[in-house]
Design brief:
- The chain has 17 helices and nine strands.
- It is of the alpha/beta class.
- The protein has three domains: 74 residues, Orthogonal Bundle (434 Repressor (Amino-terminal Domain)); 132 residues, no CATH class; 176 residues, 3-Layer(aba) Sandwich (Rossmann fold).
- The strands form three sheets. The chain has a five-stranded parallel β-sheet with strand order 2-3-6-1-7, with helices on both faces. The protein has a two-stranded antiparallel sheet with strand order 4-5.
- A hairpin with a 2-residue loop joins strand 8 and strand 9.
- Helix 2 crosses helix 3 and helix 6 crosses helix 16.
- The two termini are 12 Å apart.
């Protein structure tokens, strides 16, 4: 950002007031102040002189005006860092998407919009009623529950921030709320990678240990692998006879090594007559879909038994529905936070067009985490500018 931003704050001057004095939009001034990016259609030297005149007329000291247009290293809290010319287009797009950078609403922003809570905070979902459920999400949600209840092998694939963890928490909550006799077994996956050079691999023996610990925690594991597997089969039969169902849930399954995926077939084939003793749900990023390819002979038998579902982005009217739902949960009409032009600008900013095989292809990043991060940054900027609602100019200024 420019030192100009600090001078404005020190003199209690709003960027909106500067924009009005210069005859520019608040978004253009935000680009100058936050990014050091000057509009190409206007004379930069003339603009700088007019800014200095504005500062002097509003009480800024001459000592403060020295180096006012120089870059300062302090990071901005409401937007991505200034883009240096050395960055690649890929890095710029990643920063612009706000997909990985966590954003929170400042206290001043919540006051500006009359909100007491952040609708996109990690703790915003306290129950199933707080979940946004589109037809796509409803199908995935039901597929997970039916797999846990009746058996099957299901792979849930989605981009980072699409809501996979929320769906996993919802499954656990529904089982407890509906008093379903289902044991969810979730192996320890912290630091899991698909090879031992990167981290720790999750092996079939680890899965067997997790199953035994959940089904028969008091039994001492047998020494040989074959005996342990027979012991597990026996424990699952006894638990099934007692009326329980068993569901193995592996999060971050995209980090599973191929041998472990191959061995899942042995767990899936644990049966009692016609009844499957264990259902399996794999949850992971798109790399999981690549690993579950029928072209790979090593995992073909697993793939042929696996149903795959994908979480779609919030495209079309889904984005408006999602934002309306999130704000109405806090008793706030969405129109008091962002207008139609702002929503269109959000959609455009999170949709990137790339060229693949000489054909243009649109890549959508319209997932809940990315939408929440970007809109939170826009709301912070709108509050800073004194703009009543987020509009297209504000979104472009982030």
């Amino acid at each position: 950002m420019l030192k100009l931003k600090k001078v404005l704050e020190a003199n209690a001057l709003k960027q909106a007031a500067l924009a009005k004095a210069l005859g520019l939009s608040p978004a253009t001034v935000a680009q100058i102040v936050n990014h050091g990016e000057w509009p190409r259609s206007l004379d930069e030297l003339d603009l700088k002189e007019r800014i200095l005149d504005f500062l002097e007329a509003n009480g800024a000291k001459k000592a403060d005006l020295s180096g006012v247009f120089e870059e300062v290293s302090e990071p901005r809290a409401n937007a991505a860092r200034s883009v240096s010319p050395s960055k690649t287009a890929e890095e710029i797009n990643q920063e612009d998407s706000m997909l990985l950078r966590k954003q929170t609403l400042f206290p001043h922003t919540r006051k500006h919009f009359g909100m007491f809570r952040d609708p996109f905070a990690d703790d915003a979902i306290q129950s199933a009623d707080d979940m946004y459920v589109s037809p796509d999400i409803r199908y995935v949600r039901e597929a997970m529950l039916q797999t846990a209840k009746h058996g099957g092998l299901l792979a849930v694939v989605a981009e980072s921030g699409a809501g996979k963890t929320t769906l996993m928490r919802d499954l656990e909550d529904r089982i407890a709320r509906e008093n379903q006799p289902i044991l969810l077994i979730k192996p320890y996956v912290l630091g899991m990678e698909d090879n031992d050079q990167k981290g720790k691999t999750l092996k079939a023996t680890h899965i067997a240990e997790a199953l035994m610990a959940a089904v028969a925690p008091l039994e001492k594991p047998k020494s040989s692998p074959e005996a342990r597997f027979a012991q597990l089969h026996k424990a699952l039969k006894e638990s099934h006879a007692a009326g329980y169902r068993h569901c193995l849930v592996i999060d971050e399954a995209n980090a599973l090594p191929i041998p472990t995926i191959k061995h899942l077939k042995r767990f899936f084939e644990l049966e009692l007559g016609f009844k499957k003793l264990l259902s399996i749900i794999l949850i992971g990023q798109p790399e999981l879909k690549a690993k579950l390819s029928e072209r790979d002979a090593a995992v073909r038998e697993v793939v042929q038994r696996c149903e795959m579902v994908e979480l779609a982005p919030l495209e079309g009217s889904r984005l408006e529905e999602y934002l309306k739902f999130k704000f109405e949960r806090l008793g706030k009409p969405v129109g008091e936070v962002i207008d139609a032009s702002g929503i269109d600008a959000l959609r455009a900013k999170l949709s990137h067009t790339t060229t693949r095989r000489d054909r243009p292809e649109t890549v959508s990043l319209l997932y809940p985490l990315a939408v929440g991060n970007l809109l939170a940054a826009c709301m912070n900027l709108a509050a800073q500018l004194g703009v009543p609602v987020v509009n297209a100019d504000v979104v472009k200024g982030v």
